[in-house]
Amino acid sequence: MKMKHAFAWIVSVALIVAMSGCAMFSGPSAKESPTTEKMDKSAAEKIRAGDEVLIRISGTGTSTDSVYSETVSEGGTISLPYLQGVAAVGKTPSQLSEELKKAYVDGGFFRDVNVTSSLKDRFFYIRGEVRNSGRFLWSSDITVMKAIATAGGFTDFANPRTVKISRNG
After folding, report:
1. Per-residue model confidence as pLDDT tens digits over 99-156
2. Using an 8 Å Cβ cutoff, are 104 and 110 in contact?
3. Which residues pair with 135 in a beta bridge?
4. 121 in Cβ contact with 133 (< 8 Å)
5. Where are the domains of the chain?
6. 0.70 cut: is pTM over it?
7. Between 165 and 88, whose confidence is greater?
8. How far apart are CA 57 and CA 158, in angstroms?
9. 16 in helix, strand or coil?
10. Secondary structure in 3-state letters for 64-105
11. Of 52, 91, 87, whose CA–CA distance to 71 is shortest?
């Protein structure tokens, strides 16, 4: 009889210790994490290495517009006809358009030219313990929690307190 009481007492103490240990965890939850905050909208619209930029050039004396799709190099530049190594990283598409227009006019290539630039769609990838891992369309108002929801939410085996974020890898 004493053995049963001793065993029950040990199990009770072990459960109390285990439960109090869980209650004492004060780490940030996924909801409280600073990584769930929205990105600065102006930073989201800036061109980065690896982005694809669509550039439309009109007013060159031809009857049709010229359209170029350029991938920004790791060095942060793009190349177009008559212009090589134009810095694009850190600029908004409208800033890049103005710089390209100025370069074409100041370089004497065209008297008056219209240049418009825009970013092609960006994507993010999510994998791990989510219901639908894969590639999803990125938007400037995406948060970590929205990204997880886009992927169908966490699986039953996921630990929502352990989310890893990596860029370019």
Report:
1. 999 999 999 999 889 999 999 988 889 999 999 999 999 888 899 999 999 999 999 9
2. yes
3. 125
4. no
5. 43-119, 122-169
6. no
7. 88
8. 49
9. helix
10. CCEEEEEECCCCCEEEECCEEEEECCCCCHHHHHHHHHHHHH
11. 52
